[in-house]
Design brief:
heterodimer, A: about 210 residues, Ribosomal Protein S5, domain 2, 5-stranded mixed β-sheet, 5-stranded antiparallel β-sheet, 4 helices, about 30% helix, globular, B: about 240 residues, alpha+beta, OB fold (Dihydrolipoamide Acetyltransferase, E2P), 3 domains, 4-stranded mixed β-sheet, 16 strands, about 30% strand
Chain lengths: ~210, ~240
């Protein structure tokens, strides 16, 4: 993890989780355009998620897709509870997330990078957001699924978590799990998030205190 | 009183608990969560009396009444005044009443006074509502900046750039014989003198704003004072602010 990788952005971060690399850049708070989309009592948090064409083995067609729109939305919802949006009414905070190398878990890497970039930009926040995907392969519970692992899971479960306030801001499930399994997997996810949170703090400290 | 979890001048990230006690009050860039006072931004803890605040290391410029800022004309809507960019999330407005001279709008167009793209050193006159910022030229320090160059710096490092009672900036001015104006909004204007040296000094302050002994380092970088053969200009009095 590294913060401050893009000099032109207000805040930025790069997060590498296995072979997945996400780069996030934060611009703003700045004026919201189009104006009719301004919210009078808080800021808009715009998250733009994209995978670059060379990020995995097949070429990814640039531009919006059904998948990227979904991830934009869940990322925004994962970050919104952590940001004091009411500090900047009518403004917009733009978060650009680019996946430059994909090997499963891109949305979680994206959220980690975005939360780091938001903090780096000096945007008022309640907490950092840490995120990790967990799942079940056969009878084993696994964390931070990568590449082939994801394809062989019974179920995978991306989680985003605010470690200080102990709140879950993203929970998706792809597959089937029994209630006991969910509990176990969630425990694992929270453990992972706490580890990532520590790394995020380290990365911020390294960026600002030399 | 209870002990602080984070000491004074210690680095904090958003959400970090600084103290867990009702004996203290949350100040700038802090919020209360239950018993605890937590940081809202990345920064350094500062304690004054019972008030805990965080000195931000990065973030948007938040205008304050009385600040001197460097603003650029962005738009002239009709004959009411000028819309100005002040490097904050919201744009500011310079009304006709904020200009020193009387302007008869029937005879003169506003762009004969200030055109789009002109750069002004102006004062924040009033803030009514977060996106209603009026600026004014009715101040002895205010003027139009002609020529020179503008450098963008991090607005949270401006106090350090100025120094205690303007010590840092006056040192740079004296040693490089350059004319400099700093806006609280993170724009710096300079003209003449040893521009390269000024840039180096600004770069250094921007990089190492939170380090101790910075003034000495900058002093070393700038070298001996230059015999400035310049005529005395109407020097803008910098706003002093404790860091």
């Amino acid at each position: 993890m590294e913060a401050g990788v893009i000099p032109n952005a207000k805040g930025s971060a790069m997060v590498r989780m296995g072979n997945t690399v996400a780069v996030a850049a934060v611009y703003g708070p700045r004026e919201m355009h189009p104006k009719h989309k301004q919210i009078s009592d808080r800021a808009n948090l715009n998250t733009i998620y994209a995978m670059v064409p060379f990020s995995c083995t097949d070429r990814i067609r640039p531009g919006y897709s059904r998948r990227s729109q979904e991830i934009c939305k869940v990322t925004r919802q994962a970050l919104e509870p952590a940001v004091f949006l009411e500090d900047y009414p009518k403004a917009a905070i733009d978060v650009y997330i680019n996946i430059i190398s994909a090997n499963a878990g891109t949305r979680t890497a994206g959220i980690n990078a975005a939360s780091l970039a938001l903090a780096d930009a000096g945007i008022p926040m309640r907490d950092l957001v840490a995120s990790v995907a967990t799942g079940k392969i056969g009878n084993d519970y696994v964390m931070d699924l990568a590449g082939k692992e994801e394809e062989e899971t019974v179920c995978d479960l991306p989680v985003a978590y605010m470690p200080k306030s102990k709140q879950i801001t993203l929970l998706q499930m792809d597959g089937d799990l029994s209630p006991e399994d969910v509990k176990k997997v969630m425990e694992l996810a929270i453990k992972g998030c706490e580890k990532i949170y520590k790394m995020q703090k380290e990365a911020l400290k390294k960026r600002w205190i030399k | 009183m209870t002990e602080l979890i984070k000491n004074e001048r210690e680095f904090v990230v958003p959400g970090d608990e600084i103290v867990k006690s009702m004996d203290y009050l949350p100040g700038r860039n802090c919020f209360r969560e239950g018993d605890a006072i937590c940081a809202r931004k990345i920064g350094l803890v500062s304690l004054s009396g019972r008030v805990i605040s965080v000195i931000p290391l990065n973030g948007a410029y938040v205008p304050k009444v009385g600040d001197m800022v460097i603003a650029t004309v962005e738009d002239i809507p009709g004959t009411r005044g000028w819309v100005m960019n002040i490097n904050s999330p919201y744009r500011a407005f310079l009304p006709l009443s904020g200009v020193r001279d009387f302007i008869d709008t029937n005879r003169t167009s506003l762009d004969s006074v200030y055109r789009i793209g002109d750069v002004l050193y102006a004062k924040i006159h009033s803030i009514s509502g977060i996106d209603m910022i009026d600026i004014s030229m009715q101040d002895p320090r205010a003027r139009k900046l002609r020529g020179g160059r503008i450098i963008k710096i991090n607005s949270s490092k401006v106090p350090r750039m100025i120094g205690k009672q303007g010590s840092m900036i006056s040192m740079i001015k004296d040693r490089t014989a350059s004319r400099i104006s700093i806006g609280q909004n993170g724009y710096l204007w300079m003209e003449g003198g040893d521009e390269k040296k000024v840039m180096e000094a600004i770069d250094m302050i921007d990089r190492e704003a939170y380090m101790n002994g910075l003034t000495d380092k900058v002093s070393k970088l700038l070298g001996e004072p230059k015999p400035a053969p310049r005529k005395e200009e109407p020097k803008a009095e910098e706003k002093e602010e404790k860091k």
